[in-house]
């Protein structure tokens, strides 16, 4: 793993971003690095924006990632990928779920959900990978493992060994849900 890793996990409340950050944090710790995690909830229980900063290095002084510092933005929803784009490094990478979730202004009819979000991000020259995480989660046996599919897709882009990721899952996910989560992780990892 490189000496410094700054990852933002972004989504909306209820998508499992916090479990994803715990899995990522566990994998970094198991790689013998320091890790700091900071979670920001914006009306998360009502479908509002949720962002988690995860930093790993030999020594991490602060978990906060400033604009232009994120190596990776792992977006659980397209609009969240666009919303946090300014935090990505010029040579950074976005991994985004293709799923869309209407925010409250769209639900109430005061605005429309933006169109062609992925294309607009690509047009800015940003490195972006799209994942149909919901379909892969359903193939794994539950829509609730979208978060682990996305962590799997991101894990493949790190140099943390697969066995370390599997150990991180085992130490983070309750035993009764481990098999389905390992399946979901594998589907994301093997894209």
Please explain how this structure is put together.
About 40% of the residues lie in helices and about 25% in strands. Helix 2 links the parallel strand 4 and strand 5. It has one domain: Pyruvate-ferredoxin oxidoreductase, PFOR, domain III (Pyruvate-ferredoxin Oxidoreductase, domain 3), CATH 3.40.920. The chain is of the alpha/beta class and about 190 residues long. The protein is globular and about 45 Å long. Helix 1 packs across helix 7, helix 5 crosses helix 8 and helix 6 packs across helix 8. The model has no long low-confidence stretch (mean pLDDT about 90). A six-stranded mixed β-sheet has the order 2-3-1-4-5-6, with helices on both faces. The protein is built from eight helices and six strands, in the order E-H-E-E-E-H-E-H-H-E-H-H-H-H.
